[in-house]
TrEMBL record:
UniProt keyword Transferase present: no
Stretch forming the signal peptide: none
InterPro entries, alphabetized: Ankyrin_rpt (IPR002110), Ankyrin_rpt-contain_sf (IPR036770), Multifunctional_regulatory (IPR050745)
Domain of life: Bacteria
Keywords: ANK repeat, Repeat
Name under which the protein is recorded: Ankyrin repeat protein
Amino acid sequence: MQGEYRTREEPERPLMVKELIEAGADVHLPVKGNGSKALHIAAYYAFPQCVNILLDAGADLNEQTFDDGYTPLHCALLKEDSQDLQTARILLDRGARLDLEDVYNRTVEQMVRQKRYTAAIELIEEYKKKRSQGPPQGH
């Protein structure tokens, strides 16, 4: 179901992530050989609370993997069976860049358009429009 992905984030998972960070876990260390960090994994598996905890702890929301150049936003939006719009929205709200390219010089927008992921395309268009308008007046 495109755009209708339901998170399977068990209630104890965010608590566990928070406790690991408080115990000294480094959110900047790769957890996989391709350079994926904990934030990439949390975004891929649609764990929005974990994404927020990792970002609050200083994880780089625009960090790219070594092998394919994916950011956490790529991980949230490019799953074959579903796209995690909730996590993608968190990443975009917190400043995820839309202009970063993978190793084949493709942006996340180009990739979701190629795959015809309608909900992801609409989300990206929404954020591009918001960003082009600048901050709300009076701020």
